[in-house]
Design goal:
With 401 residues, the chain is of the alpha/beta class. The chain folds into two domains: 104 residues, Urease, subunit C, domain 1; 273 residues, Metal-dependent hydrolases (TIM Barrel), CATH 3.20.20. The chain contains 14 helices and 15 strands. The longest helix has 17 residues. It is globular.
């Protein structure tokens, strides 16, 4: 079955060959893009969808989330907004709530968040463990996350549990805990930061994961200068995330590597950290991604469009750069930007993940910040309902009654 999509005012393909196409058309066949080009050249298809002059772009690729959790940390947020500094230790309250929750309770919240994200255009998502910090609990989170995504990241090395010796905990992470999550995980991650894991501990954790075939990711350079970026480059990590505090040598190392710098603007706002130096990174030739970092403590949002508008309005990116970072940049951070079923771009052979905006161009994502503009979503060729497709019935005004 093929579907012809027409009425596309502006098609952002992220393809070096195709670029941006005006008055465009796309054909979907099964779960892939079969044809892309000008509307006047479009071949016939089995069905036809007319978008009436809306912009189309790839679905968001959210390459950093902590979607499986229980509990609420709004009190912590309130204290932080009143001036309290952010430290990594706040994770402990989420660990306690998550450990006490049933599988059904965790599924209910995670599935709702995934549906919310999908309806707003996020067609690919990564999910980390890290809110259990014991062998059975981390294995449970990895198993539940695998129900929602192929990109499950083992983050047993989130923080050291209270009252536990750090070196003993690292031995557990790289031993029985790693063995327990391995059937469900694709990636390993470590929070290489003050209050979490130091350089030597982080290196041991990444080495253990890499040795059993897991791809490497790093939380680094969020709270201050540190070893996160250097470790990520050393291990050929797919991504180093946060990157708020970077030296010139960090930026040079990233520019000469294949490691993506994943920036988390919603988190930076919530923690009142300085924004990552997005403009400096891009100008140096570093590949960047934008991600939501959805979690209950420091970035309780699934909205990638919010991250995009923030990157434009406050981080010095153009709308084209921000959209690229939130789509193809995320795909590169997950190493899913090439081959059969690649994501983050719209071209023949890529997975049919795309979204249509209730706007004529992607500029409106920053021009109208805070608005849900995603109207139509296709995920692997299947149409997904978006809140913007629903008809709103307004009450009559007083003049009409």
């Amino acid at each position: 079955m093929t579907e012809l999509i027409v009425g596309i005012s502006e098609l952002t393909t992220n393809s070096a060959e195709l670029g941006t196409i005006r008055d465009a058309a796309v054909i979907i066949e099964g779960d892939e893009i079969a044809w892309v080009g000008s509307r006047q050249n479009a071949p016939a298809a089995d069905t036809r969808t007319d978008l009436d002059g809306r912009a189309v772009l790839p679905g968001w690729v959210d390459s950093h989330t902590h979607l499986l959790f229980a509990g609420d940390r709004s009190d912590e947020f309130t204290r932080r907004m009143a001036g309290e500094d952010y430290e990594a230790g706040g994770i402990a309250s989420t660990v306690a709530a998550t450990s006490a929750a049933t599988d059904a309770e965790l599924r209910k919240r995670a599935y709702a968040a995934r549906a919310e994200a999908l309806a707003s255009g996020t067609t690919s998502i990564e999910i980390k463990t890290g809110y259990a910090l014991d062998v059975a609990g981390e294995a449970r989170l990895a198993r539940l996350a695998r129900e929602l995504t192929d990109d499950v990241t083992f983050l047993g090395a989130h923080v050291v549990p209270p009252g536990v010796n750090a070196d003993s905990y690292v031995a557990t992470v790289i031993g029985p805990m790693l063995d327990a999550v391995l059937p469900h995980a694709r990636w390993i991650d470590v929070f290489c930061e003050r209050g979490a894991f130091d350089e030597d501990q982080s290196r041991a954790i990444l080495h253990a994961g890499s040795a059993v075939g897991l791809g490497v990711r790093v939380h680094g350079n969020q709270l201050g200068h540190g070893a996160g970026v250097a470790l990520a480059v050393e291990f050929d990590a797919a991504s180093v995330d946060h990157c708020n505090y970077l030296s010139n040598s960090d930026i040079d190392a990233l520019a000469s590597s294949q490691t993506v710098a994943t920036l988390l603007p919603a988190c930076d706002l919530s923690t009142r950290q300085p924004f990552a130096p997005a403009r400096q990174l891009l100008d140096a030739g570093v590949t960047i991604a934008l991600a939501s970092n959805c979690n209950p403590g420091t970035s309780y949002t699934t909205s990638m469009s919010y991250c995009v508008s923030t990157a434009v309005l406050q981080m010095g990116l153009t709308i084209q750069e921000a959209v690229l970072a939130a789509t193809l940049g995320g795909a590169k951070a997950l190493r899913r930007d090439s081959g059969h079923g690649r994501i983050g771009l719209i071209e023949p052979g890529s997975r049919a993940d795309l979204q249509a905006l209730d706007a004529p161009s992607i500029t409106h994502l920053a021009y109208r910040p805070g608005m849900l503009l995603t109207r139509n979503v296709w995920h692997a060729g299947q149409t997904i309902d978006s809140p913007n497709t629903k008809t709103i019935h307004l009450l009559p005004s007083k003049d009409e009654t």
